[in-house]
Amino acid sequence: MMSKYSTALVFFITLLSVADVNAQQTLGRTIEKLPPFSNPQLASYMEKILFQMDAFHADTSIQYIGEALQILDQENDKEELYYLLSYRAEVLYYEGLFNEAMRDLDRCLLLAEGLNDSLLVANIYNLKGLLYENIEESEGALSQLSKALNFYPSQPAARYPISELHHIYGNMGSYLTKIQQYDSANVCLLQSLALAKSANAPRAIAVAQYSLGELALKTNRAPLSLSYFEEALTEAMAATDYDVALDAYLGKAESAIALNDIELAKMIIQESNKHLNTFESEIGMVTRRNHAKRASRLFQKMNDLNMALYQLGQWHHFDSLIQSRNVQSALTTQAALMQSNSNLEIERLQLQRTSEELENFKFNQRVLLAVGALIISFFLFIYQSIRIRRRNEKRFAELEVSRLQQEKIIAELQIREQVGRDMHDDLGAGLSALKLKSEMAIRTEKDPEKKVQLKTIANTAGELIDSMRQIIWSMNIDQTNLEDLIVYTSSHTRRYMEENNLGLSLQLENQWPSIELSAQQRRNIFLMVKEALHNIVKHSKADHVTMSIKWVDGLLIAIEDNGIGFSDARSKSGNGLKNMTRRAEDLRGSIEFSSPKGVFIKIRIPFDTN
Amino acid sequence: MEQVDIISVSIVEDDNRIRAMLSDLFESEEGFSISHIHASAEDAIEFPYEDFPDVFVMDINLPGIDGIACVAQLRERARASQFLMYTVNDDDQRVFEALKKGANGYILKSSTPEQIIDAVRELTLGGAPMSAHVARRVVTQFRSVPEENANIDGLSDREQEVLTLLSQGLLYKEIADRMGITVGTIKQHIHRIYSKMHVQNRTEAVNKFFGR
Lengths: 610, 212
Description:
The complex is a heterodimer.
Chain A: H1 2-18, E1 32-33, H2 40-54, H3 58-70, H4 78-94, H5 98-115, H6 118-134, H7 138-151, E2 157-158, H8 165-178, H9 182-198, H10 202-218, H11 222-238, H12 242-258, H13 262-278, H14 285-301, H15 305-340, H16 344-363, H17 368-444, H18 448-475, H19 482-499, E3 503-508, H20 519-540, E4 544-551, E5 554-561, H21 575-586, E6 590-594, E7 600-606
Parallel strand pairs in A: 1-2, 3-4
Antiparallel strand pairs in A: 4-5, 5-7, 6-7
Helix pairs in contact in A: 1-17, 2-3, 3-4, 3-15, 4-5, 4-6, 5-6, 6-7, 6-8, 7-8, 8-9, 8-10, 9-10, 10-11, 10-12, 11-12, 12-13, 12-14, 14-15, 16-17, 17-18, 18-20, 19-20, 20-21
Chain B: E1 7-12, H1 16-28, E2 32-38, H2 41-46, E3 55-59, H3 67-77, E4 82-87, H4 93-101, E5 105-108, H5 113-124, H6 132-143, H7 147-150, H8 157-167, H9 172-179, H10 183-211
Parallel strand pairs in B: 1-2, 1-3, 3-4, 4-5
Helix pairs in contact in B: 3-4, 6-8, 8-10
């Protein structure tokens, strides 16, 4: 992937080194606000676009940008085109569509060059730097950000929001921290802080202080980091920037841990959770997810495993929400993007025209060789873009298909569970009414024979209700692990033995491996045990049952009674035993019956633990 | 809890057969009287109460507003009443939800009339039932709240022991043997555990409100 960009990059560097552009090291001031676009339609679109971007509505932003592009005159409205494409690139970057974003940024760079506006050029280099950092082109990020600094003018002026110097220094500082160039990072971050203060940008100040805190933590200067985070927290709260404040809390907690003050750290984390609750509606999901992960790590450091697990659970919760939302929005954004792009021919012609124009413009300023090389690289660039775009389209289509399939399966499972539950509720209510009615009748009935009959009705109704409950349980989507099955089965066993006045010795493992079971597995295992116990109650004439459930690379269930063993009434080839054998086979397990005294049943079910 | 002379019971149930039978049951049993009968949660909520009954016997599965929401709404107004959820299945997540929202116990619809009477009487004496399934849910609930935020003392040692043994599936009798107490005492522990769950939930709600 690097090759195609480096081709363009190399030639841009060549051009610029030969070109006559003012490169100044600058200490900027606040950006002078120029009047908005003269075309009132475009101006109103820009307002709408900025509003949607602030609210992080990616697909709406892309849609508006697309509409605005339609009413542009691509020949003459170069500056308008620049702003629209650069904002689109930002949105695409946030949605993770890095290739598309890079394409727009490269176009913007050409436009900015053509407009001979070094602020616009610097803006693009800053955005490219951010992009490179995210697609792990480590060398690239640094050189882009350096260029951004080089091009930044001393008296910046722009029509619409654009990168400021403290942004660039801040990005550079945090990037250098990432690659462990701590001294350079410190210089950049201090510069960013100073610029943010003089520009009176409270959020930028808070972010710079926070980054300095992180740097101090990494270089083992905990008291310093604590004071930076404290400042960042104050600044962020004053700017009502609650997500930065949240990060600052955890920074403080981490500093406390570095200073071996566990009590303080725990207190700070509690405060941060309170903060989360207080400003719930203003803190985004990504921040909450990252907070949970970091809090979990800190609790681990403090050996509070309970809290660490809880936070990990929270992280997982938010992460899955974000993942599904990201896939959704990436797809819809891509769809919006494809929709707003005109067809390929016009695109290619436009690029061709732009490059030809540029060639004419540059002709006066540079060598013929550079011009020829530039045209070649542009065609290469176009060719690659088309190929990659086709490949992405295919990839997104495949993603969409598999996503729809998964949704379908989940929907079916949910419907099945709901049907089962509805059926159960209706039938259960009716059967309960029946049972209740017959039992009320028993209370007032004098004739003993009739009492017996009523009792039979009541019992049958009760058994039907139990059967239904067991079916519903086995279809239950949310109780799918091995431990749930064991608890359910052992509960049933205890109750059943108690009801029928049989003694029970039950042995279970202390810990069960966490394995997920399918509905079929749960049902079959439970029913095998149920069947075995039923046989004991009905046929064995026993008064005590010994049962053990163990885990030995699979489930090992042993049931023994002290009854009469196999006799005519309890023949070994009876239907009940055939059913149990079939169930065991369905689970790819085995079942053995033997009769030293009473009946001994041994069930073995293998599982693959991955 | 004090012994009451006549226990007043209100019934909230949409099935008219069951409604009629429950009403007959409590009318004919000594020591009980029927306060009101409601065919829907809306009816129970909008009723102009002069006095609240000692016990509400409430179906979880009501059309329109369900039993869980009904408990949540009535709980605050009927402070001295107890809520007994009448449900087809105790393995359901809904029973647990109801208990969190303010129910004091539950009874299965497949119970005998005697068991229903006993359950209501027990509730007024401070005892409540809990199945293994519900116990496991309650354990998770108490684990997820860090002590400082809960504004309560958490569970006592005895209560924790009862809860753990219940969640492993032991019968009341077995737990009673192990801990050297009576089944009645176990049920009183359960009753207190449910009350602590209610306080927890109210605290969570208050924190959210003041946060805004």
